[in-house]
Amino acid sequence: MREIVLDTETTGLDPLAGHRLVEVGCIELVNLVATGVSFQCYFNPERDMPTGAQDVHGLSEEFLADKALFADKADELLAFLGDAQLVIHNAQFDLGFLNAELERAGKPRIANPYVDTVSMARRKFPGQRASLDALCERFSIDNAHRTKHGALLDSELLAEVYLELSGGRQRDLGLASEMAGAAGGGTAAANSRPVRPARPHAPGAAELAAHAEFLNKLGADALWLKA
User: Fold this and answer.
1) pLDDT averages per 10-residue partition of the chain, 227 residues
2) What are the φ and ψ backbone dihedral angles of 43, each rounded to 5 degrees?
3) Do the domain assignments include residue 29?
4) Confidence (pTM)
């Protein structure tokens, strides 16, 4: 199954208040494996950059001034997404901004199915923090280089988090290759019980005497003495 892990950076929190998209980053997965194919683009938001937003992602008005308008890259982005399932951390935020930009550009809204990894994390770890940094810490994913938010970097980290939330490298408990080798291509050996070890030593005199005393207590009516 083809999936796209997606993240955005913006000038603020609300597209209805005039805030705009400034970066999109996407990573392609096929059957939960990153293919190495990605899409990333910066956009000129055609407005000022609030200090609070710049503190988060580090993208200044000067840096974005010569970047493409979203409308000029919309078709390229939509073609990359295709009909793949999207994987997004706090999906309503990113989809809200993407659909606002698409509407502004006269393009259709995104109708792809999607997975919200915030919801996944909250179901799996109720009451625990569900931020991307918190999940990286939980799964021992190195994010030391994440001093600022960046759409492509965050997508790469989110792809690893999504793998772990989906069962990850422990999906077959790490035994798939060993079981396949033991079974010789079948399933019988993989399902058989291990041979129990033999008794490490013969019973000693004290053990034999104790056993004899136990039999005497049972008397002559013991079933196995009549065999």
Assistant:
1) 97 96 97 96 97 95 97 98 98 98 97 98 96 94 76 94 84 37 37 40 57 58 50
2) -130, 145
3) yes
4) 0.73
